[in-house]
Design brief:
- The structure is a single chain.
- With 600 residues, this protein is α/β, with parallel strands linked by helices.
- Helix content is 59%, strand content 8%.
- It contains 25 helices and 12 strands.
- The longest helix has 39 residues.
Length: 600
């Protein structure tokens, strides 16, 4: 049995029964000293315990031993060997808290709450100062922090629990003892909840990245334009900022960073953004920069977008990250946007689209929001590397014949054909399946062909618009979100779903219509319509639309703005094109061709 001894208001122990008997024999304890068993809370004189009475009688019947010194009389029973080792290795204060010997106020408020706050602040400061970047280092750091946090929490909670158990014997109120133990239980529940909700998912993701490689894939970096541009393709993953820094150091003439990426790690994007600003680089996207990529893109001055390229914004997502973590990140990134020339109105909606969706603002919206400096013109930046494009062409030709619009561009418009191949290369074909490559090829073909609509024949533009309206009508009935995606553009996954939802004949009709668009544009390029020339037709169609749709007619200006109902958007656009198509050919053709000069 284990016992505790109380001398001068301080508890000592636990001691075994044999140790107490030895102390009685040596005179270091007497019958009136207070003791209690380890499982009890009531203090009583030593003589009241039957297990020790026989020893007391034996000691009283024996001749008195020499009187021990004053120091030895006042000393507690000697510790066992294990406790002696612990006393040598662990500071007395830590041992006193662990054993519950400290007052409850000190154990709870100082060793519990205050120490937890200080430890958390120290971890955060250390992470900011050292800033580990390599996944293996980050994983090791996280494991060490988790282990240290676990040890601290165990020491805190055990000490508070034991101190609460002794609070009554010290004259404290029962309420505070029960309240402290209740808080210990709540703390344990909160810790377990954090581990299951955040800690373990984050560690699992970090471990996978550190030891198996990032599931997002690998980026590519290439110097272009005789050392004046650096192109980044693929995901924003760990090590990107460091690799970009090395190439910038080796090529001091680089002034522009091309960014074509579907996104990646937010932390790396912020590091890259800082580097871009330090080196005073311009940023350019020639096919698309989405999600985390946009954070780095916004670090450039100036910021350019090639014709047909898009910027995509949405909320972040990461395993184990709480909504509170995300809110703090959005506040910081919105403030950064405004500080670097983005309008508050744009920053306010940049992170409204959920992680499973994407907002692709129109070129006009990007300009008004201060996001881009303008749209590039041909020859403004370096051309694509010819051997790289040859490798892309070889990959796509293995899949079969080119889509009809792209096949015609290859024969009649070499520059547009190379531009389409450039877009495919920047989509990272090396990490794509054949199915994805075929889909990207169709997207590239359609995108290149649609740029010829403003200079095509009126009849060709009308024929394509009829196919588009039928696609919108079918998608609107099946999935309005896909209808909205068709209008504003989307990721590869969106276009997979769109292709699966539309009849094969309708997709073939689109290829035929776009081939006719390219053919008529190349045979006799017409002057793109000016707004003044279509103002009367546009006013008539918008007037009819406002009478039937009311305020929803304004959805024409922002089909993918976060929070907008996809079904209403699809309905408005379908009716808009329907009303344009019923105009006489001489009015409908120019109006439709004008709409594709800067399609929303």
């Amino acid at each position: 049995m284990a016992w505790y001894v109380r001398r001068k208001g301080l508890e000592q122990g636990p001691f075994s029964t044999s140790e107490l008997k030895d102390a009685l024999d040596e005179g270091r304890l007497g019958p009136s000293d207070l003791i209690r068993p380890a499982f009890g809370h009531e203090w009583a004189e030593l003589s009241s315990y039957s297990v020790l009475r026989e020893d007391l009688r034996r000691i009283r019947s024996q001749p008195r031993r020499p009187r021990p010194s004053h120091a030895s009389r006042r000393a507690a029973p000697p510790p066992s060997r294990g406790r002696a080792i612990a006393a040598a290795l662990v500071p007395a204060y830590l041992r006193a808290h662990w054993g519950g010997e400290l007052p409850l106020t000190l154990s709870y408020w100082v060793n519990g709450l205050l120490l937890t706050a200080g430890f958390g602040a120290a971890l955060k400061l250390a992470a900011e100062l050292f800033g580990p970047r390599h996944p293996t280092v980050i994983f090791s750091w996280a494991m060490a922090a988790l282990l240290a946090t676990g040890i601290l929490a165990l020491w805190q909670n055990v000490g508070i629990w034991r101190s609460a158990g002794r609070h009554l014997s010290r004259g404290g109120l029962p309420f505070w003892a029960w309240a402290a133990r209740a808080m210990v239980l709540l703390s344990l529940a909160g810790t377990l909840g954090f581990l299951m909700r955040s800690g373990l998912p984050q560690l699992t993701e970090l471990g996978r990245i550190a030891f198996e490689g990032d599931p997002l894939g690998r980026y590519e970096l290439q110097v272009l334009g005789n050392g004046t541009e650096l192109e980044m393709l693929g995901p924003v993953t760990y090590g990107l900022a460091d690799d970009v820094r090395k190439l910038l150091d080796a090529n001091p003439g680089i002034r522009t960073l091309r960014m074509n990426s579907d996104g990646g790690r937010v932390g790396q994007a912020r590091e890259l953004r800082t580097l871009i600003r330090e080196r005073h680089l311009a940023t350019l996207s020639t096919t698309g920069c989405h999600s985390a990529c946009t954070l780095a893109f916004l670090g450039g001055t100036p910021r350019w977008l090639a014709p047909g390229a898009r910027l995509g914004f949405h909320q972040y997502s990461a395993p184990g990250r709480t909504s509170a973590d995300m809110r703090e990140a959005y506040v910081a990134d919105r403030a950064d946007m405004v500080d670097h020339g983005i309008t508050p109105e744009f920053a306010a909606v940049a992170f409204q689209a959920p992680p499973t969706d994407m907002w692709f603002p129109s070129v006009a919206t990007l300009r008004q929001g201060g996001v881009i400096s303008g749209v590039t013109r041909r020859g403004q930046f370096a051309d694509e590397d010819t051997p790289a494009l040859a490798a892309v062409e070889e990959r796509v030709l293995k899949l079969g014949a080119l889509p009809p619009p792209l096949a015609m561009l290859k024969q009649r418009d070499t520059a547009a054909y190379r531009e389409a191949l450039t877009g495919l290369r920047r989509a990272g074909l090396g990490a794509r399946s054949d199915e994805d490559v075929a889909l990207l090829l169709q997207q590239a073909s359609s995108g290149a062909a649609m740029r010829h609509i403003p200079t095509a024949a009126d009849a060709a533009a009308i024929a394509y618009a009829r196919v588009l309206v039928e696609q919108l009508r079918i998608l609107g009935r099946q999935d309005a979100r896909l209808c909205q995606r068709l209008l504003s553009g989307g990721m590869v996954e969106d276009h997979k779903a769109i292709a699966a939802a539309l009849p094969r004949k309708l997709l073939d009709d689109e290829n035929v219509a776009l081939r006719r668009v390219v053919q008529t544009s190349l045979e006799q390029a017409r002057r793109p319509p000016a707004r003044a020339g279509v103002q009367a037709s546009l006013g008539h169609v918008l007037g009819e639309l406002r009478r039937s749709q009311g305020e929803d007619a304004e959805l024409l200006n922002s089909p993918s703005r976060p929070g907008i109902d996809a079904r209403r958007t699809c309905r408005v656009f379908t009716e808009f094109y329907d009303k344009a198509l019923v105009l006489p050919t001489a009015d409908a053709g120019p109006l439709l061709r004008w709409l594709f000069i800067e399609r929303p």
